[in-house]
Write a structure and sequence with these properties.
The complex is a heterodimer of chains A (about 575) and B (about 190).
Chain A lengths: L2 E5 H11 L4 E4 L6 H7 L6 E4 L3 H14 L3 E6 H6 L1 H10 L5 E7 L12 H8 L3 E2 L4 H17 L4 E6 H4 L1 E6 L15 H4 L3 H21 L7 E3 L2 E8 L1 H10 L3 E5 L2 E3 L3 H10 L2 E5 L5 H8 L18 H9 L23 H11 L3 E3 L16 E3 L5 H13 L7 E6 H17 L5 E6 L28 H8 L3 E6 L3 H13 L4 E6 L12 E5 L18 E3 L5 E3 L9 H5 L5 E5 L1
Parallel strand pairs in A: 2-3, 2-4, 4-5, 5-7, 6-7, 10-11, 10-13, 14-15, 14-16, 16-17, 17-19, 18-19
Antiparallel strand pairs in A: 1-8, 6-12, 9-11, 20-23, 21-22
Chain B lengths: L3 E8 L4 H14 L3 E5 L10 E9 L12 E6 L2 H7 L3 E10 L6 H4 L9 H8 L1 E5 L1 H8 L5 H10 L6 H11 L5 H12 L2
Parallel strand pairs in B: 1-4, 4-5, 5-6
Antiparallel strand pairs in B: 1-3, 2-3
Helix pairs in contact in B: 1-7, 5-6, 5-8, 6-8, 7-8
The chains are: A alpha/beta (about 575), B alpha/beta (about 190).
């Protein structure tokens, strides 16, 4: 059998393929994005980007009810958006198998919070599987569909950033074509009105009990008996740290982390002298195990914050002093907007006009940090528009005359559009700036409902954002080239003062977008440079100061956007052919 | 064999992912178990990025931790300094002698340290190369990372032929020749 080195997310996609999945819907979000980007390579699966996670979940539910194996994938905070259908499809159960892949982000590599999907799953009464490497990611995906159909339940496959973005060796197998289940009208199961739902709730409780009882026989839950003086209950990536540090210890490795196989845990606990529970983020396993009267050590010595590591285990468990050199004290290198990024141009104008921005989720969140320092708030997808509205309703229309909401095109299509409806309906006078770079930028350039292309590469209707705003009844809509700082200055001044709702769409493709060509490069004219530093203000990484104080531009980094040239009052920067 | 630990560090956009992909493929072909861990998403946007590569008979943990790296490949001087303590006491540091100012330095909030390579040489075995200059001479500055990889490859367990074959199968078809040339430049240096 062929062996391949695969990213965790790539292996999940392979698992879906081998499991005979027919429909996949998702919204991009680190660390889950590459699942759909790999699923699309399998022609047997219909795959799509949905405008948001709620829609993706519902698409998968529909496909499951119709009788095929279906899945949705998203990052942890996407599960919040999809929570409404998730909590109720738990009652409905499935026809064709239904799996939700949820990617948590311990350590916050690319997220706004550190929530634990297992907590959501417990509340929604949905079982959760957690793989420990790429091979298991593929295998568990297939097993998840079996469990889903056997127990009439949606199943969550929970991953973390470390699993999603680690590569490991995977043995490939063939796809098994699953025959479609027949669809039969069944309102008692599929129409969740109170009289039906109250009965299904009883089933859901029974289902969880059954799965907990059967857990000991599931091959994904296994005991590795070794030295009995020390035992671990662990799962996912933390299992690997246990194997690294205590290869001889006894381990109960849980592949299913909800519901817990109680009898198996009680038996394991009785065989070891000292029991540790080693789980990243919330004490989900620990609290349940302790509630059964089992003595164990967990969050007393292991943190609820951040990502775990083998060194952490060595230090906190064994008290080993680590013989390593001190880390050097070096300047931080935080992420920044790319050279030539259109957001930098828009923010440099806002910064000059002393405008505050209610921000949103995307690369443009980076407008919060120096030297741009424009973004004042970031909550979640779509929140920029609604938080600005809330400010106006709290403090009045004059209060927001130096405020705007900033939101990307993909985020606007995700949930921003609902918030804009609210502004129209409830008579807001605010200014919404849609930073339209024609893609979902931060997650690596995925198409969305306004780009004119599907995930599977087919041309489609591109939703016209201007027409959409007009249809809502917005009278003041300006479309401005993101690099036309003069026009943008004028429009921003007018629209923020105007006591009516307005939308400004700043347009320029993401600088990293495939097919984007840059005919020019910026070049300093040293003899004209007055060393004023004005061009450095937007913080373009291609620009640095030479020892004599004049400007240098790194030609390998510069994309020739010309923002620095526009800012220079002495013609000391010119654009030349690249 | 004991597990070998390699790290690739640099600035987002410098091509650490391509380099780690080549590395992963050659290790797999060598019949080893291997795990790689990379950074995607926001951190990639000009931030400090790190890739961990571990290979041996049976690899558990997917990351390399402080004091464990046999080889540290740094595409930029400041990043070499940032991660040097991940090296074993007898580890090798391969560093591209190149400077990219972080935003904290551009805005004047911090200063780019002087004499990084000299200072690191007092503690570690340091091999440096100005790969950007060499890559420009080859005609494509973007291949600097493969030149650095070529230099680092001398401290790993595979022959030049094996490397060139894997490069052929990993990089985009149009860039095979230039990347092979770049690798040789580093390996035969």
């Amino acid at each position: 059998m062929e062996k391949k080195i695969m990213l965790g997310n790539e292996a999940i996609a392979r698992g879906a393929y081998e499991a005979g999945v027919k429909v996949s819907s998702a919204y991009p979000g680190t660390p889950s994005t590459e699942i759909s980007e790999n699923i699309v390579k399998y022609g047997e699966i219909y795959s799509e980007w949905a405008p948001n996670e709620k829609v993706a979940m519902e698409v998968a539910i529909g496909a499951s009810i119709s009788g095929v194996r279906a899945m949705a994938s998203m990052k942890h905070v996407g599960v919040n958006v999809a929570a409404d259908p998730l909590y109720t499809v738990s009652y409905i159960g499935v026809n064709g198998g239904l799996v939700l892949v949820a990617a948590d982000d311990p350590g916050l590599y690319s997220s706004q919070n550190e929530q634990d999907t297992r907590c959501v799953a417990r509340a929604a009464m949905v079982p959760v599987l957690e793989p420990s490497d790429s091979q298991e990611a593929k295998d568990f995906m297939k097993y998840a569909f079996e469990l889903s159909e056997k127990y009439d339940t949606p199943v969550i496959l929970r991953t973390t950033t470390r699993l999603a973005h680690s590569q490991g060796v995977v043995t490939l197998e063939d796809r098994v074509e699953i025959e479609d289940k027949t669809y039969e009208r069944n309102p008692a199961k599929n129409v969740m009105m109170p009289g039906n739902a109250i009965k299904r709730h009883v089933y859901v409780e029974q289902r969880l009990n059954d799965m907990a009882n059967d857990g000991a026989d599931m091959p994904i839950n296994r005991v590795e008996m070794g030295d009995t003086s020390i035992g671990f209950i662990t799962s996912g990536i933390p299992y690997q740290y246990v194997k690294e540090v205590c290869p001889n210890a006894s381990v109960l490795k849980l592949g299913m982390v909800h519901p817990l196989p109680r009898k198996m845990i009680e038996e394991f606990a009785s065989k070891v002298d000292k029991l540790y529970i080693f789980e990243e983020l919330e004490p989900v396993i620990e609290e349940q195990v302790k509630s059964w009267g089992i003595k164990a050590i967990g969050k007393e010595i292991f943190t609820v914050q951040g990502e775990y590591s083998a060194n952490m285990l060595r230090k906190n468990l064994l008290g080993e002093a680590l013989d390593v050199n001190e880390a050097a004290n070096v300047p931080a290198r935080p992420p920044i907007l790319c050279p030539g990024c259109p957001h930098r141009s828009v923010y440099s104008v806002m910064n000059k006009l002393k405008i505050h921005a209610a921000g949103d989720i995307g690369c443009y969140t980076l407008g919060a940090v120096a030297p741009l320092s424009v973004v004042d708030t970031t909550v979640c997808m779509g929140a920029s528009i609604s938080t600005l509205h809330g400010m106006e309703k709290a403090k009045g229309k004059d209060y927001i005359k130096n405020w705007v909401a900033v939101i990307g095109d993909s985020t606007f299509m995700h949930t921003g559009v609902n918030s804009l409806m609210n502004m129209v309906y409830n008579k807001s006078t605010g200014t919404v700036v849609i930073l339209d770079n024609s893609t979902t930028g931060m997650t690596g350039h995925q198409d969305h409902a306004a780009t004119g292309k599907t995930l599977m590469g087919e041309p489609t209707n591109a939703i016209d954002i201007v027409a959409l705003c007009k249809a809502m009844g917005i009278n003041h809509i300006n479309v401005v080239d993101a690099f036309d700082t003069e026009k943008l200055t004028q429009v921003l001044k007018e629209e923020t003062q105007r006591e009516e709702l307005s939308v400004i769409i700043t347009k320029a493709p993401c600088v990293l977008l495939k097919g984007n060509v840059f005919p020019n490069k910026c070049k300093p004219v040293s003899e004209k440079c007055k060393k004023c530093g004005l061009c450095l203000k937007p913080g373009c990484p291609a620009l640095t100061k030479a020892e004599d104080g004049t400007i240098m531009i790194d030609e390998t980094m510069c994309n020739g956007c010309g923002l620095c040239k526009q800012l220079c009052k002495f013609d000391a920067i010119e654009t030349v052919q690249a | 064999m004991t597990t070998k630990n390699i790290m690739i560090v640099g600035v987002g956009g410098q091509g650490t992912l391509l380099t780690s992909r080549i590395l992963g493929n050659i290790i797999l072909q060598g019949g080893y178990d291997v795990k790689l861990s990379e950074v995607h998403g926001m951190a990639q946007r000009g931030g400090s990025v790190v890739t961990f590569v571990r290979y041996g008979e049976n690899v558990a943990e997917p990351i390399v931790e402080a004091g464990q790296a046999d080889v540290l490949i740094a595409f930029e001087r400041l990043e070499a300094l940032r991660y040097a303590h991940f090296l074993k006491k007898d580890g090798v540091l391969i560093v591209n002698d190149y400077r990219i100012d972080p935003i904290t330095v551009v805005t004047g909030a911090a200063t780019y340290p002087d004499n990084i390579l000299e200072d690191l040489s007092k503690q570690y075995k340091v091999i440096s190369i100005n790969a950007m200059e060499e890559a420009k001479k080859l005609g494509n500055p973007k291949t600097f990372n493969v030149i650095v990889l070529g230099l680092a490859a001398k401290h790993m367990d595979f022959s030049e032929e094996e490397w060139l074959k894997v490069i052929e199968n990993t990089v985009p078809p149009k860039t095979v020749e230039i990347n092979k040339k770049a690798f040789k430049q580093g390996f035969e240096n």
